[in-house]
Amino acid sequence: MDDSQTMKILVIDDEQDIREGCVRVLKRIKGCEVSSAPNGTEGLGVLQKEFFPVVLLDLKMPGLDGMEVLQEIKKMEGREILVIIITGFATVETAIEAMKHGAYDFIPKPFDPTQLRIVVERALDKIRLTREAEMLELERQKTLADLDTEKSRISAIVKSLPIGVVVTNNAGQVVLMNPSFKNLLGLDAGRVPGEDISSYVPDQGFCDLVNEISRCDVIEDSEESTYELVLDGNKFLMTRGRPVLTESGDCLGAVVTLGDISSIRILDQLKSEFVAKVSHELRSPLSTIHEQLGVVLKDMGEDVDAQEDQYILSRAKEKTSGLISLIGDLLDLSRIESGGLAHNIQRVPLDELLKSIVDFLGARAKAKDQTLSLSLDGDSFPPLTADPLALESVFGNLVTNAINYTGEGGRIEVSMSMESGLLRVAVADNGYGIEERHQAKIFEKFYRVKDENTRFITGTGLGLPIVKGLVEQLGGEIRLDSAPGKGTTFTVLLPVEKQHAV
């Protein structure tokens, strides 16, 4: 960035100390002008009036949260704004989710001035790179391969970037890679471009994606694709790729960046291990308390004089039951995240399993005067190779939710069919339904919809995250279709040819 150019930075955070601290640190960066806003609404107002190429955005704020503000920023036409998420919730899920929504980088609280400067200067480098790339286009460089030998400022910037950069032509051959890319992949410093991407990165999924982007098969110019690359089991890289097109729309290849998120992964693993250990330690004494409360209530019998005590003990027994259920869900989530939930892999006839689930939960539906039915579109279905307990957890949770969130006299239908080589199972109800503003969040841990219809329904908010985690590990997909007052349909698609080891 030239001395004559001023880089404007906006800090949006509801904590005054964080805002003022960021302003003090960033003003020390040469050529930077820093402003701040105390919430998402005011921040968007500032961005409507003035262009800020870099925005530091808190994820958790009252009113509009950071994810909503990020989505609004990405809708602003003609503005390329790099958004850096700052939050105290440093889990890999939030980092990946923010990046999928277009965030440039992620920094967890608490952070020191050095960390903040490094992340912001990395964003400034990105802006410099973009501006130099535009200059390069104006100079009408003939091919992407020229980048490897061009002794220009753009080449120097790419080579000095702290994130990995690799550029391929439309045949998937590497034409440019910077030192950071070589370092992240453990390649020899003298390794030169010219070979297929698979020669440099030993990950078939990553290579397939790069080849698709390079040929512009499925990715549009305005879209970005992400992929988590795992190396040697303990190094995690977040990759982001886009196609490179000429003004006439011809596909030249792909540009892919790689960032190291191993530290975030390690933190998430430590969190999961901590949750699992604490849950194990709590489950045994809670189970004992629950059983003892049951014994005391049984001994009290129908004693009229002890009705108040019976009520208190019954409530305590109910709460311990809820805690035991929560601990069970937390342990399931920990095992899903570590990839170790399933132990009994076998061939499972899914139609028979669904029949047993519907029969078992039929009594619960009947108690609410509901109709619970199973519809099979076909005489026979290929079996799945998976842990039957994992499949029971998926469809048991979905049917139980349908019963809980459907009123008296409602209707729940479970249907199964084949769809393009996939087993398709839909759980549909005519219950309360889910407002659109909640639908993007219901698979988040502990998230529950609270309204007049659902506020008396108990639950942990972990059932759907468990379902989603299991379905993804089964190689499948879960879809949601819902409207308030009309009901909800969850559709699970599972590949029958994949060997499921959950």
Keywords:
five-stranded parallel sheet, alpha/beta, globular, 502 residues, 17 strands, five-stranded antiparallel sheet, 14 helices, single chain
Written account of the structure:
With 502 residues, the protein is an alpha/beta fold. The chain is 42% helix and 22% strand. The chain contains 14 helices and 17 strands. The chain has helices at residues 16-26, 40-49, 66-74, 92-100, 113-138, 153-160, 179-185, 204-214, 262-300, 307-337, 350-367, 388-404, 436-439, 463-473, and strands spanning 7-12, 32-37, 54-58, 82-87, 105-108, 164-169, 174-177, 225-231, 235-245, 251-260, 346-348, 371-376, 384-386, 411-419, 422-429, 477-483, 487-495. The longest helix has 39 residues, at 262-300. The protein is globular, with a radius of gyration of 27 Å. The two termini are 50 Å apart.
Offer a concise description of the structure.
It contains 14 helices and 17 strands. It is of the alpha/beta class.
